[in-house]
DNA sequence: ATCAAATATATAAATATTCATATATTTGAG
DNA sequence: CTCAAATATATGAATATTTATATATTTGAT
């Protein structure tokens, strides 16, 4: 239906298009983390974290390393951190301009 | 349910997560285009283009300029072009590693 | 005022995603 | 071999997105 490459790129962005997955990736920007680490840091249950990690794995956005019974996740490519940082710049520049959004930003960290 | 900022960022990436919307954005990287321009360049019907443009507008990813009866669309922020370019680098680096994908790339342009 | 061109919106069926809950799997310790 | 810890997967109902088709709206020309 569409060119496979565009389909593929779309899948990549779709994988980033989820709040919990974004938070997970932000955690991974600072280095590899186990599922338990993420679960604790984000305050969500194990199953939800694993579910979203599975999606990031499928899309080749994260990589895993297994040590005993714990699995460590990391960004597959440091450029993904850059991408997230660039996205942050875009938000800061232009995209957030409704009053409601500004208000949210005033009380929330980036 | 989630922090509004993360929700907002997710919406941004979700908006990029669609093949036709990506192709539209790639067109806009080279400068502003009317709906008719896009329609012709992409070979899709008017309604589909407008529908997808509406989504990009809603998410503040594109901006419009009206001249008579034609509407010109452009990227809202040049950083969006950078983001797409960075995404391309990521694909070229790592993300495309299945045999099927390499095969597709060999016969398709980026 | 009417018409045609350009663009936008409405609708709804098909499809995909989300999210909570339950259950499996894998691994090392004892 | 059994158990518990850590992680993954299955399931399905609720919700959201996609996509095709039809219809509106807006604008400038005549």
Any overview of this molecule?
Two copies of one chain form a homodimer. The first copy, chain A, is α+β, with helices and mostly antiparallel strands and 110 residues long. The first copy, chain A, has a domain at 4-77: Orthogonal Bundle (Arc Repressor Mutant, subunit A), CATH 1.10.10.10. Chain A is 65% helix and 13% strand. The first copy, chain A, contains six helices and three strands. Chain A has helices at residues 4-16, 19-29, 35-42, 46-58, 78-95, 99-106, and strands spanning 33-34, 62-67, 70-75. Chain A has a three-stranded antiparallel β-sheet with strand order 1-3-2. The longest helix of chain A has 18 residues, at 78-95. The radius of gyration of chain A is 16 Å and the shape is globular. At the A-B interface, α1, α2, α5 and α6 of A face α1, α2, α5 and α6 of B. Chain A binds a DNA duplex (30 and 30 nucleotides) through α4.
Gist?
Two copies of one chain form a homodimer. The first copy, chain A, is of the alpha+beta class and 110 residues long.
What radius of gyration of chain A results from the CA coordinates?
16 Å
Low-confidence stretches of chain A: none
Number of strands of chain A: 3
According to CATH, what is the topology of the domain at 4-77 in chain A?
Arc Repressor Mutant, subunit A
Average pLDDT score of chain A: 88
What would you call the shape of chain A? Answer: globular
Largest interface: A-B, 47 and 47 residues
The CATH superfamily title of the domain at 4-77 in chain A: Winged helix-like DNA-binding domain superfamily/Winged helix DNA-binding domain
């Amino acid at each position: 239906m569409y060119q496979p490459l565009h389909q593929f790129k779309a899948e990549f962005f779709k994988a980033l298009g989820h709040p919990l997955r974004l938070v997970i990736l932000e955690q991974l920007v600072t280095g590899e983390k186990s599922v338990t680490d993420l679960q604790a840091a984000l305050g969500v249950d194990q199953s939800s974290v694993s579910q979203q990690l599975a999606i990031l794995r499928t899309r080749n956005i994260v990589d895993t390393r297994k040590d005993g019974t714990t699995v460590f996740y990391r960004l597959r490519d440091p450029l993904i951190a850059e991408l997230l940082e660039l996205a942050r710049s875009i938000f800061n520049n232009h995209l957030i301009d409704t009053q409601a959004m500004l208000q949210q930003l005033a009380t929330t960290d980036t």
